[in-house]
Amino acid sequence: MVLILADDLGWRDVGYQGSEMQTPHIDGLAAQGVRFTNLYAYPLCTPTRAGLMTGRSPARYGLIYSVVRPWSPYGLPLDEHAMPETFQALGYQTAMAGKWHLGHAHRRMLPNARGFDHFYGFLYADIDYYQHTHLSGLDWQRNGTGVREQGPTAASRTDRCEAAR
After folding, report:
1. How far apart, in Å, are the Cα atoms of 139 and each of 89, 112, 127, 130?
2. Catalytic amino acids?
C-alpha cells in the first residue's frame, strides 16, 4: 500500500480532478488505485496527520488548533495506536519518506518508535529545500540519525525511494 499525503494540495490541483496542471504520475496512481474522496482534512498539517495515523479526531489529543512547534514537548500521544503499528503487527514492513510533524521531544515520539521500520525525511516543517535545515539546525534524517546530503529535498526522497525498490 502506498499512501500519499500532500500538504496544501487543493481538490483541483491534480490533473484527474480537472486541473490545468499536468500531474501524469499522480493521475496514473489514481486511475489504477483506490481514491478516498469523502474524507476530512484540516487546514494544518499536524491535525491532518494525527487523524490519518490514528483514524480518530485530532481534537481528542488537543492537536486541532496548531502544529507541533520545534520547542513543543508534546505530539501524538504515546498511548494512541498508529496505523503503521497495525501493519507491523500483521508482518508488513513499513516505511515513511517526508515530513513527520507529529512530535519530536522524545525518541519514543519519532517515526521509528511509532511503527515505521524505515524513516527518511524531516521532523518539523519549513525546512530549507537545499540545506535540509530548520531554524539553522539540520532536520534531515534516516532512521533517527541526522544525515547531510546535497541536492534539493524532493530529489533526495525520490532517489532514496527508487533505490529502496
Report:
1. 29, 15, 7, 11
2. 45, 101
Over residues 92-120, the pLDDT tens digits come to 999 999 999 999 999 999 999 999 999 99
Residues 39-70: pLDDT tens digits?
667 888 899 999 999 999 999 988 998 899 98
The tally of CA atoms less than 13 A away on the side-chain side of residue 39 is 14
Query: Do 42 and 51 meet the contact criterion of CB atoms below 8 Å apart?
Result: yes
Rounded Cα distance between 101 and 74, Å, is 11
Of the candidates 137, 134, 116, 117, the one whose C-alpha atom is nearest the C-alpha of residue 125 is: 134
| Rounded Cα gap, residues 84 and 77, in angstroms | 15
Tell me which H or E stretch contains 27: helix 24-32
End-to-end CA distance of the chain: 14
Nearest 5 degrees, angle CA 79-CA 81-CA 84? 140
Domain ranges of the chain: 1-39, 41-164
Grid coordinates representing 51 are 487523524
